[in-house]
Amino acid sequence: MVTIARYLTHPQVWIDPDKDVPQWSLNDVGKARVATLIKTNALQGTTRVISSAETKAIETAEPLAISLDCNMEVYAGMHENDRSATGFLPPQEFEMVADQFFANPHVSIRGWETAIDAQNRIVHEVNECLQLDSEGDILIVGHGGVGTLLYCALADVPISRKYDQGPGSGGHYFAFATDTRAPLSGWKPMENM
Hints:
By secondary structure, the protein is of the alpha/beta class.
């Protein structure tokens, strides 16, 4: 039996420059998108919900796990790429630095974790969580940056922002088979699950 894993990025968040980015919470739009996904029953058959330890990921994963009547597992190493060297950056500046991050995967841009290190970390964490047997499908809730790096690794393509989840401030997913680790799709909005 082929088990499907879905990697879902958290949807929209409250941007609070005075708070550490990993502690940001979902905003009302993000919460509404999670509630809508629950109502669709699109994740029926999912028996494991795995989350990054960041607040916004947990706030996405926890209601989904509750609705599926399964435990939520937290993997601290699934966090977004480490950007603590700069902390919050205004959106335009953030996009510019993110472009450099993906374009130069072996270089630390402004003190950020390198893309190749972040990719190795997320691939390792996903492989670790997939070592455990699953009776059904798996949902992994995480972040756009490392999600893109994971997609690139699974699709066996070079690290590039052209494989990013696209516009909309998160709330996208891709699916892959756990046996081959091959992506079954590119990124899609969570509403299309």
